[in-house]
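Supplementary Methods, section 5.1.

A reviewer requested that the exact input to the structure prediction be made available. We therefore reproduce it here, unchanged from the version used in the analyses.
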Amino acid sequence: MSELVILSLGPGNFDEGFPAVTVRLGKPGNLSMQFTGSLPPAPEIPQLYRNWQLLYQALCQSSRGSPPIEIVETGVTHISEGVFQDICRCLENSINSWLSSEAFHKIELQLRTQLKISESVRVVIESDDEYIWRLPWQLWSFFQDYRQAEVSLSSPEYPPPPQLLPKIAKAKVKILAILGSSKGINLQKDQDLLKQLPGVELKFLVEPERQELNDQLWEQGWDLLFFAGHGCSENNATTGRLFINQNPINNSLTIEELQEALSRAIHKGLQLAIFNSCDGLGLARQLAAAKIPLPTI
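The structure derived from this sequence is encoded token-by-token as follows.
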């Protein structure tokens, strides 16, 4: 059985720091060890992240021949892959410098003392801070050494899992695959991979209308929901929007707008939801609020 690490950052933010960091570790259901520490303010990390995001978007637009993004507030006047690589290194160095602060380093030392490099480790980071969720945590030097460790994110508060109907043995796993707006991207590979899965009953909705999607979630019993296509986060990453088709209007929806249909699907046995879309932070938060058993973004 793999080891479980719950890293709770507690209240705080990058401007003021995180004064009450707690880590618990052990086996799932028996987190027998706990250590405490803190993290100092690091306001430069969100700014570096914003610069990285703007440069990444600018390079993507440049590669597609679109007009370049004008980056004014960051002071960046020249966009190139070299500049982008420089800011990637700065972001990685800043993250590791922050996590090497004295009050947090003792937590990392305890993790390295109690955990074996060769064993499987699940690390769950609990925080409500938007930029904690946005950070590329795989760049933390701890994960460079612990190659069998996987990281996931969670809100500090979460409801109990919903009560599901008793599972009846099925010959096949039922998958509803939604292929949303494909403007500028190729979703054929997603479709081909899904078709190769053994032991499944697969239904594709290709750029569906809202009502068609709602009806399928409401009326049918699905084990797994899959979405591939464009997405974005809104309202400080508290809301996720999925673009389901390329119509001039009614071409997108939020998880909140699907709340009733999703609740019905969960009650009828939905176990897993997989979303392959960009900028899925707001989506992840809304899915957690919707009590999806195992959302994967």
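The longest helix spans residues 44-63. These observations are discussed further in the main text.
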